[in-house]
Structure formats: C-alpha cells, structure tokens
C-alpha cells in the first residue's frame, strides 16, 4: 500500500470517529447559515426533537420550530454574525431555547429541559462569518436543584416571619414592619395609623372552656381579621390574645371605620368547640402617627393607651388616642 493510500485511510478514519463523536456527544450542536437555515443537526438534537438531520437540513429554523422566540433569538445571534464574538445565554435568563421534554428520572419534577447555550461564529477562508454554531447544554439537574433550594429558603423565611397558630405575621416581623413605617412617616410627613386589639375577658374563655378553646378563639379571631384586611394593611399577632394592624395612608377617622368593622364581625360571630358555642368580643385602640413620637415604641404605647381606655369604659368598643401637646 502506498503512503498516499495510507494517508487517505487515516484521514477517512479520523473523519469517521470525529463524526461519531459529533453524533454521540451529550450536547446539542446546531449549525445555521446566515439565513437561519439548518445545516448541521446532531444526535442530541435528533433524539430530543424527534426530527432527523435529513428532515431539517436546509430548512428554516423558525419555520421548522415555530414555537421558538424568533425576535429574541435574532437579538442574540445577529451580533455574533456582525461582531464575530461569541454569545451566551443561561437558563435563569431564558429557561430554554428549544422546548424539549425532560426525560431524566432524577429531575422528573421539571416538565421541560432547562438549557444553557453558547453561540459561536464560524468563518470562511476570507474571515467572514457565514454560519453560527449553537451549542445546547442540558442543565436541568442544576436548575431544578437551585429552584428547589430557593423554594426551601423562601419557605424558611416565611416560617420565620409567621405566627405558628394564626398564620399571621409574628411579633418580630410585624414590629420590624412598624419600624419601617415609622421611619417612612418621619420622612414623608404622610399619615398612618396603628390598631391594637384583644379579646375581652379572655381569661374567662380559658378558665371555662380550657386552653384549647382559647386557642380556637384566637384562631377564629385571626381568620376574621384576615377577611377584613386590605392589601396594604399589615396584620400580626402581638402576643397571647392581642393583635395589631398597621394601616398605611390611613388617618384615625378611617382607621376607626376599619376597627368598627372588625369589632362588629367578631361580635356577630361565634366559635364552636366540643359542641359548645363560644361568643366573645374585642376592644380596640387606635393611634394615628404623630411626629412627636420619637420611636416606634411610643407609637405602640399610644395605641395601647387607647386600648386601655376602651377596656376601662366597658369593653367591646373602639377608642382613638388623643395626643397631648
């Protein structure tokens, strides 16, 4: 065999294993010409799309896959043609380019494959970009793990801010919100009100029906409060049977309307516990923000003092704090 024949055999052999690697590599390889016609379509793309290289060759990418976001993809690839620079995209920006179903059992919670992609310019002998290669990476495992971790962290954050019994904001989170509202009011000179209320004669509920009944009464009151809260209101459990609501952009007069609505809904309702009907009322104190308050704690004390007046005057009523200059 001549040296020329041996060289030809070696070249054919190299081409064979290069093509074999190209078809079996675990990434998608797509080559497009400057008209976005498909020139190369490897085994990964065939397996996940169900389209063979013979079906798609010289076909328009956007006509073959009409679900592709053509505007977005052109914005990513046009600079590759013009500037001869690589471009990249990650799943956090766009979950996928090609909407392939996810078949991995480990990440079966994902219905579609999450993808990263690299866009590579391909030049001719004159240095002009005539084609681009898109490399598709399946990053579903990484994406699902990150999303699950984010969900866990979000849930942990929610639990750290939530009262376990009532599912309202707990004392720590609610008071942090009040501090922020206090600072906002000092800056903007707007108006907001604070409402504090509790169950009248709560000790009698515990003594007569047991602490489980007391918890049921607190839970019942929390549900009634949620039904009355507006989107901007921040309600929370202040402690024991005591609750608090921050009412942004609300003066004392309108806060009293809100408080009276809560009072009436509690008075009209009842709690069934062990086939026994338990009825109770609430007393409510309101304090509109005043610039003489030098801390959010003074604001709380003002609302508490209004609540004390409501208790002293017979309970089951709303009282507003009157500022003394």
Automatic annotation (TrEMBL):
<dbReference type="InterPro" id="IPR000014">
    <property type="entry name" value="PAS"/>
</dbReference>
<protein>
    <recommendedName>
        <fullName>diguanylate cyclase</fullName>
        <ecNumber>2.7.7.65</ecNumber>
    </recommendedName>
</protein>
<dbReference type="InterPro" id="IPR029787">
    <property type="entry name" value="Nucleotide_cyclase"/>
</dbReference>
<dbReference type="InterPro" id="IPR000160">
    <property type="entry name" value="GGDEF_dom"/>
</dbReference>
<dbReference type="GO" id="GO:0005886">
    <property type="term" value="C:plasma membrane"/>
</dbReference>
<dbReference type="Pfam" id="PF00990">
    <property type="entry name" value="GGDEF"/>
</dbReference>
<dbReference type="GO" id="GO:1902201">
    <property type="term" value="P:negative regulation of bacterial-type flagellum-dependent cell motility"/>
</dbReference>
<feature type="domain" description="GGDEF">
    <location>
        <begin position="190"/>
        <end position="323"/>
    </location>
</feature>
<dbReference type="InterPro" id="IPR035965">
    <property type="entry name" value="PAS-like_dom_sf"/>
</dbReference>
<dbReference type="InterPro" id="IPR050469">
    <property type="entry name" value="Diguanylate_Cyclase"/>
</dbReference>
<dbReference type="InterPro" id="IPR043128">
    <property type="entry name" value="Rev_trsase/Diguanyl_cyclase"/>
</dbReference>
<dbReference type="GO" id="GO:0043709">
    <property type="term" value="P:cell adhesion involved in single-species biofilm formation"/>
</dbReference>
<dbReference type="GO" id="GO:0052621">
    <property type="term" value="F:diguanylate cyclase activity"/>
</dbReference>
């Amino acid at each position: 065999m001549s040296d020329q024949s041996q060289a030809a055999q070696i070249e054919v052999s190299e081409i064979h294993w290069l093509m074999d690697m190209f078809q079996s590599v675990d990434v998608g390889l797509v080559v497009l010409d400057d008209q976005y016609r498909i020139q190369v379509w490897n085994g990964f793309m065939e397996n996940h799309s169900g389209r063979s290289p013979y079906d798609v060759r010289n076909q328009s990418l956007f006509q073959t896959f009409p679900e592709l976001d053509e505007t977005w993809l052109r914005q990513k690839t046009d600079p590759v043609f013009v500037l001869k620079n690589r471009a990249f995209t990650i799943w956090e920006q766009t979950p996928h380019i090609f909407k392939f179903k996810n078949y991995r059992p480990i990440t079966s919670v994902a219905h579609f494959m999450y993808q990263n992609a690299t866009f590579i310019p391909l030049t001719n002998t004159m240095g002009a970009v005539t084609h681009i290669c898109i490399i598709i990476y399946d990053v579903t495992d990484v994406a699902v793990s990150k999303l699950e971790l984010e969900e866990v962290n979000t849930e942990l954050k929610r639990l750290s801010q939530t009262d376990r019994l009532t599912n309202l904001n707990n004392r720590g989170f609610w008071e942090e919100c009040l501090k922020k509202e206090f600072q906002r009011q000092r800056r903007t000179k707007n108006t907001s009100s604070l409402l504090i209320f509790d169950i009248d004669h709560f000790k009698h509920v515990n003594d007569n029906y047991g602490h489980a009944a007391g918890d049921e009464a607190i839970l019942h009151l929390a549900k009634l409060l949620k039904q009355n809260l507006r989107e901007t209101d921040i309600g929370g459990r202040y402690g024991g049977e005591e609750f608090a609501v921050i009412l942004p952009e609300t003066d004392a007069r309108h806060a009293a309307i809100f408080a009276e609505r809560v009072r009436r809904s509690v008075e009209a309702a009842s709690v069934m516990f062990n086939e026994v009907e338990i009825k109770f009322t609430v007393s409510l104190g309101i304090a509109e923000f005043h610039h003489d308050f030098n801390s959010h704690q003074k604001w709380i004390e003002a609302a508490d003092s209004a609540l004390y007046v409501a208790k002293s005057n017979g309970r089951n009523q709303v009282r507003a704090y009157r500022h003394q200059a």
